[in-house]
Amino acid sequence: MASVTGAVSCRLFPSASRARISISSPSSSSSLSPLSLSSSFSYFFSPLKCLPTSPFVPHFFLIQKASWMSTVAVASDPSQLKSAREDIKELLKTKFAHPILVRLGWHDAGTYNKNIEEWPKRGGANGSLRFEVELKHGANAGLVNALNLLQPIKDKYSGVTYADLFQLASATAIEEVGGPKISMKYGRVDVSAPEECPEEGRLPSAGPPKPAEHLREIFYRMGLNDQEIVALSGAHTLGRSRPDRSGWGKPETKYTKSGPGAPGGQSWTIEWLKFDNSYFKDIKERKDEDLLVLPTDAVLFEDPSFKVYAEKYAEDQEAFFKDYAEAHAKLSNLGAKFDPPQGIVLDGVTGEKFVAASYSSGKD
Ligand code: HEM
């Protein structure tokens, strides 16, 4: 059955360079996969012709509508996503911004509230973090630097949404420093105005009175479980904390005083630009005063349920990588609205375990 999602998407993405109309055979139209998008016959039309006021829009789709056709408009363009990924890799080679890009992606997605159905009120990976009002939230201190690094890439690829770019940058950064391959999908729709940003206070604090309770309250609200909390905390194998941003950490240590990248801050691990399981080993041992352990890191070895996973990941890097990759893919999709609803896969089949539809109905 053909759909008219293209018209809706054009209204949502006036900045998109083009919408893609795919025409599939009758047999493939009911099970259109992200991959079949690129293999099916497709052509493009100018976004100027699909402004909300244009009478051309409904006509265009009505004329095209037939039982053997499927019209699908995408939020991001697959070829532009791939080019943007190469640009991100180049950027990382000179800026060593891997950690802050991971933090950017996580803070865009981590505002998700599973108890709110409506998009974008539910928060999540929707690009809202580009707006000043959200960048100014205390938890986001310093992330304006990450946005500034990515902005030229965004300017270059109008067919890539902010929401996708943030998640693309994060997954690429992890892979580039030795982390697991993450089964990502793209096509996230951007919010369009600062009024659509979530209220402050949805992200975790590093020093709450009861860290385990706090982590559960925040991450359960996102629909994540204990194992995912521990696995995702392992992202602190990368990067540093800076007192002038979050208020946590030392101004500099022997591991950070000469960079790479902007010097200073306190890292959780010695090689803080290498993705491995040393975070779990180091917070378990706590031997080195130059390495950071936040109250919310320490609790991973104190709470009986968290401890099972923390111990496992300290012993077994492969288990950590596997669980991290799955949890990261899930995090990156939280609250996102995908266009097309099944998302766009760049490199093959997505190995994500959870059902995307429970996070993205594609209806609103
Ligand atoms: C579990 C609750 C979490 C808390 C309380 C927390 C807290 C923090 C704090 C205080 C900083 C230092 C920021 C600064 O001063 O610049 C930080 C940095 C960082 N966080 Fe988390 N975080 C949490 C979870 C996560 C998760 C789930 C991820 C990713 C999946 C993540 C990724 C990072 C990264 C990569 C950095 C380093 C950023 C840089 O070097 O610029 N964090 N986090």
UniProtKB/TrEMBL annotation:
Q: What Enzyme Commission number(s) does the record list for this chain?
A: 1.11.1.11
Q: Domain of life here?
A: Eukaryota
One Pfam family from the record? peroxidase
Q: What is this protein called?
A: L-ascorbate peroxidase
Matching entries from CDD domains are given as: ascorbate_peroxidase
The answer on whether this UniProt entry bears the keyword Chloroplast reads no
The family database entries (InterPro entries) matched by this protein are listed as: Ccp1-like (IPR044831), Haem_peroxidase (IPR002016), Haem_peroxidase_sf (IPR010255), Peroxidase_I (IPR002207), Peroxidases_heam-ligand_BS (IPR019793)
UniProt lists compositionally biased (Basic and acidic residues) regions at 241-255
Segments carrying the region annotation (Disordered) are 236-264
